[in-house]
Sequence to fold (593 residues):
Amino acid sequence: MIRFDAVSKNYPNGTTAVDDLSLELAEGGITVLVGPSGCGKTTTLRMINRMVEPTTGTVSLRGRDIREVNAPELRRGIGYVIQHAGLFPHRTVLDNIATVPLLLGWSRKKARARAAELLELVGLPAEMAKRYPNQLSGGQQQRVGVARALGADPPVLLMDEPFSAVDPIVRAELQAEFIRLQKELHKTIVFVTHDIDEAIKLGNNIAVFRTGGRLAQFDTPERLLTSPADEFVADFVGHDRGIRRLSFVKAAEVPLREGPVLSATSPVAEARAVKEPWVLVVDDARRPLGWAPVAELPDSGTLVDVQLAPLGHTFSLVGDSARAALDSALLSPARLAVGVDADGAVVGAADVHEITGSPGGGDR
Amino acid sequence: MNDFLNQIQLVGDWLTSSSQWHGDEGIPRRLLEHLTYSGLSLLFAALIGLTFGLLVGHTGRGAFAVASVANLARAIPTFGLVVLVVTLAGLSSTPVLIALVALAVPPILINTFEGVRGVDPATRDAARGVGMTGWEVLTRVEVPMALPLILLGLRVAAIQVVATATVAAYPGLGGLGRFIVDGLSRNDYELVIGGSTVVVVLALVVQAVFTALRRVVVSPGLRAAATKS
Fold:
């Protein structure tokens, strides 16, 4: 889809922004370019829409050298989102979004209708259409920026640190929204960030750059975490990569044991017979209610009357990762993660060792 | 104090006397001359100032030259220039126009240039990035965003030109300056003050026109007081 062939970018002052890059980006996925500042990731991105021209080498899009297409025309076919959204302050939100359709010569009416659709797609209410960018929050501006990039429904989207100028809560929101959008749109997206967490969260493939514009590793997030190519990548990926790679292990792969599980109608004596410090109490449908502290149980009666310690949280065997299971174990008073099925019924439990010892989660 | 009130009375009489509003020597005729000189000079100055201001602001080349030319032009005394050009070119409206244009170009040029250059680089980058050609970036982004400053430059120039066009009377070319020049030579202060009053009113009208224009042509998105809601 997008191909770099021995591409370098040198500036007259002697700096090398990108050094002999060869890379092929697949169609329909999110490729994240990540690395410390000055590693050439933004330059690489900007070479795709000719905002920067390579010194040597060729960049091709769908098999065609991009220098064959005149730059403005090329750019109209590629969505472009930048850090502070870069909206046009003198235009309303709707007209900002309609920019590219209007440049392509659509009628004003058709362009605005398309813009209204996109406004809804990025999760903004219709009454925002008439506002100006300086009346929007940073997060809202960024959504408008994404909508503008989608204006003419381009197959390729370039995003240059689009979420780095907003606060962490809004960023998480935008990221979630972005993942949802991509599921719907299946664009080929090239995404630049300096934040490795963001890269791992969003990328189908990640290209790690090192200072001096050299590609250090190009791999899936999982491979990046489990087998970093060298010291630099291992370091950049971070010291908690052991925990992070659990994100790529499905919770269903965590070995579960039956665990100390009792119905709320069971007599107290039965809980004592389990010989465990904590007993998980469940309802008729085996949905977890909480943990009963065995040492503090009354002499008689059933578990219904017992004051239960809160559950922490459970993990779902259908959607969650082993990382959620680990978190569940750490937060539970019994240090046991509780796995539930799609109906919320308890399937079993696992402790920290069992979770981290699961396939792919253990030491390499 | 009585003298002062008396003066106002006399000027009032002068402004309202019917002879002032008719004939070749009346206010309408002089006003028309004045507006013709001012309007023509402003038009030429705008052509020069806007063209170069936009060009240099957009390309970023020649910024130093713009600043130098504008400063140099500002240092030229208008009256001296009129006398010089009259001496060289003879008695016609050309010298007056040249002097007024020279006066009006710098504020238009500088403000246009600053307005365009002051556009946020990220916005310009986005404009190119979505596929605008250089011309489209200029006309669809840079000019609308620079409009507040461009209008400021035009307004400053217009007011200066309107006030200074009185020099046209010295080489005998008419305009509202006629009243002031004649009044001074005849020690007829009602005439001087009356003529000046008309010039001041005209400058205020120009100011009001530009304020109204600003409200119409500048995008609400560029007004600083835009509120979050």
About this structure: Chain A has a mean pLDDT of 90.
